[in-house]
Amino acid sequence: MKKIGWNFPSNDNGCVNGVSEAGIETFKGDVFKSLAKEICQNSLDARLDDDKPVRIEFYLSNIDIEDIPDFERLQEVFVLSKNYWEDNKKANNFYENALKIIKSKKIRLLRISDFNTTGITGAREEKSSNWIDLVKSSGVSNKTGTAGGSYGIGKNAPFASSDLRIVYYSTFDKDNIRAYQGVAKLASFEEEKLSKDTIWDSFSKKKKKVMTQGMGFYGNIENNLPIFKEFSLDNFKRTEIGTDLYILGFVKDDDWENEMIKSVLSSYLLSIYNGDLEIKIENILINKMNLESLVPEYADDLTKGYYQVLCSPNTVHKEKEFAGLGNITLDILIGKDLNKRKVLMARGNGMKIFDKNRISSTMQFAGICVLKDKNVDEYFRLMETPQHDKWEADRHFNKKEAEKIIKELNKFIKDEIKDLGRSTILDEMDAVGASEYLPDDVVDVNTKEQHKKESLLNKTSSISSLKKVNVVSSSKEGTQFIDESNLDDGNVNTNGEINDDGNLPARKKHNKTSKNTSFNVCKYFGIPSSEGDSLLKNPIKIEPLSFRLFLYDKDNKQYKLSFIPKMSSRHSYIQIYLMGEQDRLSALVRMAYDSKKNKLLCKEDKIYVGDLIANQKYTIIYSIDSDELCSMEVSIHGYNK
Q1: Do the beta carbons of residue 636 and residue 574 sit within 8 Å?
Q2: DSSP string, 181-197
Q3: Which of 299, 506, 493 is nearest to 414 (CA)?
Q4: How big, in percent rounded to 5, are the helix, strand and coil portions of the chain?
Q5: Alpha carbon distance 339, 361 (integer Å)
Q6: Phi and psi torsions of 503, nearest 5°
Q7: Pair type for strands 277-281 and 54-64
Q8: What pLDDT band is residue 339 in, cutting at 50, 70 and 90?
């Protein structure tokens, strides 16, 4: 008769494993987000019927210690482990906490069950099966194509959410095989075991100290195989094909339900909205039908913005055959309440990878980009990190090509969003409810048809691209002039930053004959030279409580800027950018004056406005060195008061 119980194999005098197991530590930063992302991904990858959603349930219970199979052996193992690692502070802390849990009367247990999946197939195989890869291997994944995993590390997410690092796997697979097995991922420890007679291959009565691997299995002790029968730790009865995970010693957090709901909505909003995934966390069902009520209550601001993209009739949909790899889609929504300015980057199955930023500093929008087709999805999957939260070209087998592909995708997204922004220019961008604080104390210049001029940009069907733009930045040799017609791809950034596509700022011909009078900010603002250098080294970006920019005088090409700063600042300045076809370009400001007609100093792309007071409205009229109407971005900077 085969003996059933916990077995911790010997390391055969090999590697000693510590408590800081890399695969588990990877997911310790945010256990709920990691758990939600990895569990849902595995279930979606094992979808059985594509016409029905995958269903996943999360249930927490407190079970009696006696209900845990072979719990006495587990208690013994934790005592031995603590004794062995008593000089290691981190390991000692872990085992002290674990012993309190394993010796208590009740233990927290989280059951995760999925439905409309294949189950974990291959439990009777000895190698190269889904069961072996998930339950018994390390750093191995047999997923291909659009399947989410590629490192075999995601399987550690459930262990990261267990204070005991113990998980039981139970399945009823599509081949009608039932199987279960427990896995403990601990540190190596020493114990006495009966030694084998090397001649007769049988156990002698002698015992010797043996170092274990630290990883243990509940099942058939002789060969560490699973048990082929039905299994449950919380009286759940499985009648449908699928998989159950039991996380023993689930982390104690009274807010775990809310955190899980938030994580699920963040990572799988698209999958749920498309009807591919349904999740139940305790008594709260998350599906396509009730997203409208759940998103406002549980989702973070980013997710709320993405949900607007999915639901709004104003969302612009783009689909593109990308780089010969297949189709990608991009949905864009521009609106004054979309102040996060990010794009959700998603795999074909709807799983979020990351939020792309650095697209526009002032235009308010949200977007969703999906790697729709199999080949493009698989190409980018090869660049995903183990946590599936970013792309790194170094991970691809063709690094240079991967870098080029990422740049091309970034460029496509930025171009589409900025093109849409130019064609739908918002004449007002302010915080909700802040408009009432903006009395229109307009400068008395050409006011006869003011209302018509304020809305001119909205009524203009198109704004001509800049045929020739002088963009300046200071240098020791003189002023640099960049002619847009001479640029290779239009990706210009004169502020010393690296563009999203990884290129350095464009540098073109120098015009040493141009006037370049030196400007001393300290002298202009009356700052003593003793404190000037240190004061002006680190300007801060000032977020406006309210912000409004529109064409003020079409004939003279003057623009009006009104804003209310959130904070006070000293020696402040406004920086003006033109929205070029590929990127933003620094403007050259000709003149500027305030609401009292006081002339303001302008240098290159900056207008110096002096001290700003929080919650007070400021109005600036200015013109730039351009013969055509332009779409612009504005940023406000200053120094702490």
Answers
A1: yes
A2: EEEEE----EEEEEEEE
A3: 493
A4: 25, 30, 45
A5: 10
A6: -80, 150
A7: parallel
A8: confident
Residue 561 has pLDDT above 50, yes or no: yes
Answer yes or no: are the C-beta atoms of 631 and 362 closer than 8 Å. no
Q: Looking at this protein, which amino acid is placed at residue 62?
A: N
- 547: amino acid identity, one letter: F
C-alpha of 524 from chain center: 44
Confidence category of residue 378, pLDDT binned at 50, 70, 90:
very high
Cβ-contact 483, 506 below 8 angstroms: no
pLDDT, tens digit, 9 for 90 and up, residues 273-325: 999 999 999 999 999 999 999 999 999 999 999 999 999 999 999 999 999 99
CA–CA distances in Å: residue 638 to residues 386, 570, 574: 41, 6, 9
- Residue 348 contacts by C-beta under 8 Å, 6 or more apart in sequence? 146, 370, 371, 372, 373, 374, 377
Residue 188 vs residues 12, 69, 87, 243: alpha-carbon distances, Å? 12, 22, 14, 29
- Residue 135 carries which DSSP code? I
| Residue 406 in tokens | 């990422």
Higher pLDDT, residue 358 or 463: 358
How far is residue 445's CA from residue 430's CA, in Å, rounded to a whole number? 24
Backbone angles phi, psi at 533, to 5 degrees: -60, -45
Residue of 50, 24, 61 whose CA lies nearest to 244 = 61
Give the mean pLDDT of the chain: 80
| Rounded mean pLDDT, 219-232 | 92
pLDDT in tens, 68-117: 999 999 999 999 999 999 999 999 999 999 999 999 999 999 999 999 99
**Residue range 548-566: average pLDDT?**
85
Distance set, CA 69 to CA 59, 399, 516 (Å): 20, 49, 82
Query: What CA–CA distances, in Å, run from 217 to 6, 67, 129, 206, 243?
Result: 6, 17, 18, 24, 18
Question: Residue 612 in contact with residue 638, Cβ under 8 Å?
Answer: yes
Do 17 and 146 form a contact (C-beta atoms < 8 A)? no
The helix (run of H) or strand (run of E) holding residue 456 is: helix 456-459
pLDDT of residue 475: 30
User: CB atoms < 10 A from the CB of 71, how many?
Assistant: 17
- What pTM did the predictor assign? 0.68
* Side chain identity, residue 437: Y
More confident residue, 524 or 183: 183
Q: Are 84 and 152 in contact (CB under 8 A)?
A: no
C-alpha closest to that of 232 among 3, 63, 48, 73: 63
CB of 540 within 8 A of CB of 638? Answer: yes
Instruction: Name the token pair of 375.
Output: 């080949």
Give the Cα separation of 301 and 293 in Å (integer): 15
Residue 65 carries which DSSP code?
G
- Nearest-10 Cα torsion for 263, 269, 273, 275: -60
The Cα angle at residue 395 between residues 392 and 399, in degrees rounded to 5: 85
Polymer length in residues for the chain: 641
pLDDT at residue 476 above 70?
A: no
* Residues 6+ away with beta carbon under 8 Å from 295: 265, 303, 304, 307
